[in-house]
Write a structure and sequence with these properties.
Length: 48
């Protein structure tokens, strides 16, 4: 997983205000979801 250090620091650091941490964590989760969705589009789908 590729991480964006400033966003990661804001999401999980202790110095950031609570609202900023919440928004940063949401952005990290959204980015991971979009990345997984893009990767799923390129994986072959097989049925048995």
């Amino acid at each position: 997983m590729t991480r964006i250090p400033p966003l990661w620091r804001a999401a999980y650091g202790r110095q950031a205000p609570a609202l900023l941490r919440l928004l940063a964590r949401t952005a990290v989760r959204l980015r991971d979801f979009v990345r997984a969705l893009a990767l799923a589009d390129h994986r072959p789908f097989t049925t048995l």
